[in-house]
Design a protein that fits this description.
Two copies of one chain form a homodimer. The first copy, chain A, is an alpha/beta fold and 370 residues long. Helices cover 42% and strands 17% of the residues of chain A. The first copy, chain A, contains 13 helices and 13 strands. In chain A, helix 5 runs parallel beside helix 13 and helix 8 runs parallel beside helix 9. The termini of chain A are far apart. At the A-B interface, helix 4, helix 5, strand 2, helix 6 and helix 10 of A face helix 4, helix 5, strand 2, helix 6 and helix 10 of B. Chain A binds a DNA duplex (16 and 16 nucleotides) through helix 2 and helix 4.
DNA sequence: TTGAAAGCGCTAACAA
DNA sequence: TTGTTAGCGCTTTCAA
């Protein structure tokens, strides 16, 4: 396998020049650069990343830690991050940091903390302040997606605002008895997403002059079955049943749709339903939602990290004057209301026909940027 | 950050001994090993993977290439592989090789082919013979999950047998008009999974003395909406409608369940439905299926690769005598029939009550190993 | 703009 | 069982 020395020989220059020409670091005349590139190409030369990392101290690899891979949000974030990184010549290595204390410690110390990665992106996973601090201390930037991390940059939606937007949509349609299907306490542990969404819901009701009725607030586990179970409970009693439900995730909302169906309720005539996420199945079920874009969030987090790395490089050990007291950036990810067939005004009249609940071809989406 | 020299000094031995003691390669007396371990621990020493890789030629990192991350099967395989690798101290880095020619080439040459990985695992992705060949030529073992790769080891279910098993289940229940919802041609490109499953279906019918009716064979794109659309078409006409459907994936089968529901058909009274996969949503929908276990398959592929790597190490450049003309192993992954509420005999009588189609608590699964 | 040469932090011959 | 030492293949000073 051709090495840098072979390229140098063929191009008639030193290995130092080859390194400079190929990496773009340091001055090289145009002519030399051309000859080197040609020589490298003709030999099929590619740098050895190990040797390069060892000599330069940078691995061109970033670590992504996730709680698990079986959920749409996580994998979409990873997918977006990977695409952005690959475009810049970086790799992404994946760590499941779900394990218990000892295993987690091992992964953290042996893999993340050592020279395997230049930076870390945490997806919906709460690194402890100590973990983040140790990474930052050895110069590895950290970014969090889906939840804030002390001292790290963050990309996430404004959960309160998103929940308010969804609830306001229902209010504007004329609903007054609006239920909220939130997340149970265990899902609130790290980032308080369920709590924030409940706050947004309550704030919207309050702004409309309505009390929030505890009887209309139930919780699930963010899955379709969880949403189904909670909705079945919520909708069982015919008297003072809500006319609309705001679910904290699309998957739970889909559970609500199915439960309504099984209970003989027609959506949106008897019940309006809206979720949060922009899950791909939402379109099939005609589900209105506030969509976020996890792939885009992953890409943004990757960009944040790469630019931090580049900036550091440019200013060497001298701190970048502009980095002084510059808070790690917090990007608010975009989210938009998408109105589909599952939301309409209450009591539209018995004449209104039932929603073709599972229509695979819903009417074109209506999207409103917020 | 402490280096190997610091540990050596503290333990009163040479760096070579530290390396041997910590890696387990080479003879070290118990006492020395203890002192070294202690010194390393007290200094918080962890080897630099770059330096180690450069010196040893092994990265302790394996590359996983996937077409994309948004499907349950792929992510489950990755999850299983990652767990198995991490347990052995290996990393997994992720490559989306979905891009077109040029991008794919770049990823392949710059990342996979160079010293970033010790081995490659391809998930439901057809590496070309040339790509596999080049990897093998530079000593990097390759494993395929979900489809065979020329010259590489393989982990996959027997699609023909799985399809036959599902179809036989329906036959045994007494069905005679059994439809097959398969994959369309574009999904057949690489590994012929749709074709194989159709063969298994046809073989089972044939063995039962039945003709396979082309009118009962439709195809979808392996998604819920795809299954819904195909089933709506298939089940629309009331006369000579099938009494059972075997779908080539659980997601399509769920689409069939929903379509049947929308058409006013009761499952399993009017229509029995079975899928393939063991998708987590299947339980919620009471879907009978032939389950495979992608995480387990990922783990098996990882083990195959690691053992190849270890074997190579042991025998150095001398070929392992036992490796002579030893075909790369092909593991047949396990699959088992899981009978839930969506399958029963035909015409069970008008008295039979409709299946609580979306019951979140179906009767306990019945599983039969095959 | 270029080249010479000193490492980067380990591993693995080889010798003892 | 242990130590000495020569690399692994680059990057980056430093000097020209």
């Amino acid at each position: 396998m051709a090495g840098i020395a072979d390229v140098a020989r063929l191009a008639g220059v030193s290995t130092a020049t080859v390194s400079r020409a190929l990496s773009g670091n340091g001055p090289v005349s145009a002519g030399t650069r051309g000859r080197v590139a040609e020589a490298a190409a003709s030999l099929g030369y590619v740098v050895s990343s190990d040797a390069s990392s060892l000599a330069s101290g940078r691995t061109r690899n970033i670590g992504a830690v996730v709680p698990h891979l079986s959920r749409w949000f996580f994998t979409s974030v990873i997918e977006g991050a990977e695409r952005a990184l690959l475009r810049r010549g970086y790799d992404l290595t994946l760590y499941n940091l779900s394990g218990d204390g000892e295993e987690r410690r091992r992964v953290f110390e042996h893999h993340l903390l050592r020279n395997r990665v230049d930076a870390v992106i945490a997806v919906s996973l709460k690194l402890t302040d100590d973990e983040v601090g140790r990474l930052l201390a050895i110069g590895k930037p950290v970014a969090g997606v889906g939840g804030p991390l002390t001292g790290a940059s963050t990309v996430q939606i404004d959960d309160v605002a998103v929940a308010r937007l969804a609830t306001e949509h229902l209010l504007q349609l004329g609903h007054r008895r609006i239920a909220h299907l939130g997340g149970s306490r265990e899902y609130d542990l790290d980032f308080h997403i369920p709590t924030n969404r409940r706050h947004g819901y309550a704030a919207a009701l309050h702004a409309a002059g309505l009390e929030s009725d505890p009887a209309l607030q139930v919780s699930g586990d963010f899955t379709i079955p969880g949403g189904y179970a909670a909705a079945t409970e919520l909708l069982r009693s015919a008297h003072d049943r809500p006319t609309a439900v705001f679910a904290a995730s699309d998957e739970m909302a889909i559970g609500v749709l199915i439960a309504a169906r099984d209970l003989g309720l027609s959506v949106p005539r008897d019940l309006a339903v809206i979720g949060v996420d922009g899950h791909p199945l939402g379109e099939f079920f005609g589900l209105s939602t506030v969509a976020q874009h996890p792939e885009r969030q992953g890409g943004q987090a990757a960009e944040l990290l790469l630019s931090t790395i580049e900036r550091r490089r440019r200013w060497r050990d001298e701190p970048d004057p502009r980095e002084q007291d510059q808070r790690p950036p917090a990007v608010e990810a975009a989210a938009e209301l998408i109105v589909r067939a599952s939301t309409a005004g209450p009591a539209a009249g018995a004449a209104a026909s039932a929603l073709p609940l599972f229509s695979p071809t819903p009417s074109p989406d209506t999207a409103n940027e917020r």
